[in-house]
């Protein structure tokens, strides 16, 4: 079991490092269906795994992080994450997985369409790192909503944060995926702390082996994002979300 957790963790880490997201959306189904963890325990364990992986991946991509946007967005998301983390244990395991899969499907479709459209015009946004500002209220609402979703599902937030940073703040995906790592660390810690006293238990041997292996994979995956075109990263991201959504729905039925 521990060996399997380590092998899978390396693969998850590569995805997180390369895309700035994906660790939680992969970790939760793997913990539930492969490593046989209860769904609510898996959401807490994934926060540990994703938080550690994102922290290490940040060291390879710090030049691409918009720290001011990341800290501002993350601080607001923490509030939502605390609320979502307290609500999550009130939902049945199977219902939690189904809701999780539906959310992934919706986000995956949006990102896939955006990537295909960008590939046709040869550019998603300006690649110089400039940010197209949106109204303050839009940033506040999306940050709180993102935090609530990530706290509720226990996935760190990368799969929602990256699209939000791109679609709402106008950050190019290389910068968005890097900035999301900072936000993932912040929301993972807050979501984990908020689960204290809810009866959720963490299998620490499996979680730590998975997490350490994922951290090593994150070191490998980080430089990959700097060599890939934004359009392809967006399409890969969308396909990944749709694939995990389909798998989760099939297994929950």
From TrEMBL:
Entry membrane topology: Multi-pass membrane protein
Top-level taxonomic group: Bacteria
TM region(s), chain numbering: 6-35, 64-83, 95-116, 136-169, 181-198, 204-225, 232-251
Primary residence: membrane
UniProt KW keywords: Cell membrane, Membrane, Transmembrane, Transmembrane helix
Subcellular location: Cell membrane; Membrane
Family in the record: Belongs to the 4-toluene sulfonate uptake permease (TSUP) (TC 2.A.102) family.
Protein name: Probable membrane transporter protein
Record organism: Arcanobacterium phocisimile
């Amino acid at each position: 079991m521990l060996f399997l957790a380590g092998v899978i963790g390396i693969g998850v880490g590569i995805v997180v490092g390369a895309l700035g997201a994906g660790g939680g959306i992969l970790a939760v189904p793997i913990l539930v269906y492969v490593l046989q963890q209860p769904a609510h325990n898996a959401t807490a364990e994934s926060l540990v795994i994703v938080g550690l992986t994102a922290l290490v991946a940040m060291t390879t991509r710090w030049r691409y992080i918009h720290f001011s946007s990341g800290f501002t967005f993350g601080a607001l998301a923490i509030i939502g994450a605390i609320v979502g983390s307290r609500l999550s244990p009130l939902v049945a395991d199977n219902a939690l997985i189904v809701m999780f899969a539906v959310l992934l499907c919706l986000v995956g479709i949006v990102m896939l369409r955006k990537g295909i459209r960008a590939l046709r015009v040869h550019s998603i946004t300006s690649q110089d790192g400039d940010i197209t500002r949106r109204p303050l209220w839009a940033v506040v609402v999306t940050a709180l909503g993102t935090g609530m979703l990530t706290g509720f599902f226990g996935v760190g937030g990368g799969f929602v944060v990256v699209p939000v940073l791109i679609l709402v703040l106008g950050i190019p995906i290389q910068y968005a995926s890097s900035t999301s790592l900072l936000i993932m660390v912040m929301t993972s810690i807050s979501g984990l702390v908020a689960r204290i006293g809810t009866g959720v238990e963490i299998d620490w041997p499996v979680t730590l082996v998975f997490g350490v292996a994922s951290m090593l994979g994150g070191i490998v995956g980080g430089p990959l994002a700097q060599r890939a075109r934004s359009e392809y990263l967006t399409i890969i991201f969308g396909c990944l979300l749709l694939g995990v959504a389909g798998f989760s729905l099939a297994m929950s039925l």
